Amino acid sequence: MSHIKTILVTGGAGFIGSNFILDWIAETGGKVINLDKLTYAGNLQNLASLENKPQYSFINGDINDHKLIEGLLTSHQPGAIVHFAAESHVDRSIHGPEDFIHTNVNGTFHLLEAARLYWTKLPGKQQTEFRFLHVSTDEVFGSLGPDDPPFTEATPYAPNSPYSASKAASDHLVRAYHHTYGLPVITTNCTNNYGPYQFPEKLIPLTILNALEGKSLPIYGDGRNVRDWLYVHDHCEALRIVLEKGRVGETYNIGGKCEKTNIEVVKIVCAILDELKSESNHAPHASLIKFVKDRPGHDHRYAMNIHKIEHELGWTPKESFDTGLHKTVEWYLGNLDWVEGISTGAYKKWVDTNYKDRAAL
Ligand code: NAD
Ligand code: TYD
Using 50, 70 and 90 to split pLDDT, how confident is the model at 229? Predict the structure, then answer.
């Protein structure tokens, strides 16, 4: 149970946002207003189980729409804003950075402005308890060498892609609204998530779905880039704890303590598919692996030191990579109608754009 009765979630129809809303309502029974523009990454099917629930309402809109947000805040009086809305895919940011500036930078600015106006007018206790939780990424810290210590909250920002630069800009704006206006913000920087409802442009769902269809499994460069993987429900739990107990003005690193090279990740997914779909003509699925042209500016390694959230707030990741990936693969196998639903023209066009010039290495 949370002391916060109503929250405004932005980007709640995306991967992490929809898992967060489902978990929030199940865990707290609180009310959720979901504001989402429904870009290619937003999918209301993720939240179909909430459609008739009185605790849940959906508003189709852009976080740049200052007036719309002011109206929502005034009429619903949320105790917190949980800000997920973003353009989130690095490869798309390389092909077309403008949408990333529009949503991640300008959108966060407009959301902050609307939040500030609303918060300034709140009466005493409501004003003190209000929170603006900004959900960000480990990518703002740049890239680590193989032997570097993991990023801490004090690591200087050094974003390398248009995506991470736009997220870094939004983190700075959020910080400034606290420093200048006293807006009660908290920022979280999290590592790569995986789990149900992730759009299959990202490595893990792309691998699962390509392998099922016997398509090649593209690995950028030599496959030795390292990411730290966190099961999405663990991330959602961390965010609930930060909302409940996190200190205003602070940032918290969130991670899975689970560093893996991309080739390891793809091989583990293949091994799970070999086990669950042993009858498939495409087994052993690892035979589908294909090394392709690298991502420009590809960050070598991300890793998070999560000592602060573990010791200060008592959160730690629960799911192991093995159990989390098993659950994820099983979820995709059991939800092929969801996959069918998102295989729109726009998605197919993206696959063409991203992979057509990636000659095999
Ligand atoms: P996603 O791409 O799956 O979903 C983004 C959602 O935002 C979509 O529903 C989309 O319709 C919505 N949206 C986009 N532009 C909008 C706008 N202008 N106004 C309103 N809604 C808009 O993203 P995700 O993977 O769920 O990530 C959510 C947040 O978490 C992002 O801020 C991302 O930077 C951060 N994050 C993601 C990861 C990860 O591994 N996926 C890791 C760390 C942090
Ligand atoms: P991704 O899921 O796009 O997340 P991010 O770039 O935010 O970390 O990619 C994870 C890693 O997998 C990254 O190092 C790029 C790599 N990758 C591939 O090797 N092949 C692919 O087809 C994709 C989409 C990613």
Answer: very high
Active site residue 139: yes
Residue 27 to residue 4: CA distance in whole angstroms? 12
> CATH number of the domain that 304 lies in?
3.40.50.720
Residues 37-59: tens digit of each pLDDT:
999 999 999 999 998 899 999 99
Number of domains observed in the structure of the chain: 1
- Report CA(92)–ligand 1 centroid distance (Å): 13
Q: How many helices (H) and strands (E) does the chain have?
A: 14, 12
192 lines ligand 2 (CB under 6 A): yes
Q: Which of 11, 183, 149, 168 is nearest to 84 (CA)?
A: 11
Active site residue 302: no
Distance CA 58, CA 25 (A): 14
Does residue 284 form part of some domain? no
| Given the residues 36, 62, 65, 163, the one annotated as active site | 163
206 CB under 6 A from ligand 2? yes
pLDDT band at 1 (very low <50, low <70, confident <90, very high): low
Active site residue 355: no
